[in-house]
Amino acid sequence: MQTLNLNETTTAWTKLSTTLFVPHSEVDYDRLVTLLDQLIDQVGENIDHPLASMMEVIGVLIESYETQHVPELQETA
């Protein structure tokens, strides 16, 4: 089992938290969509790319926001 080093995690999260976050507004959502577009351009379909899992996490965050706040997307699915 991996032990969480809170000091290292705090340092890393402080740097990442402005990039990776749960969207609570349309502005947040738009920022994540823009970031995902940039990641798709960089990562493509390379599942071994160091940022591939970040791209997946951001996709899940966007999907969750859309499910809660963009009902017309759910109607067409």
Question: What would your notes on this structure say?
Answer:
The chain has 77 residues and is mainly α. The chain is built from 4 helices and no strands. The chain has helices at 6-16, 26-43, 52-69, 71-76. It is globular, with a radius of gyration of 15 Å.
Report the radius of gyration as a whole number of Å.
15 Å
Arithmetic mean of pLDDT: 91
Number of strands: 0
- Percentage beta strand: under 5%
Q: What summary fits the major beta sheet? A: none
Give the termini distance in whole angstroms.
Answer: 39 Å
The coarse overall form would be globular
SSE layout:
Elements: H1 6-16, H2 26-43, H3 52-69, H4 71-76
Short description:
The chain contains 4 helices and no strands. The protein has 77 residues and is mainly alpha-helical.
Notable characteristics:
77 residues; mainly alpha; 4 helices
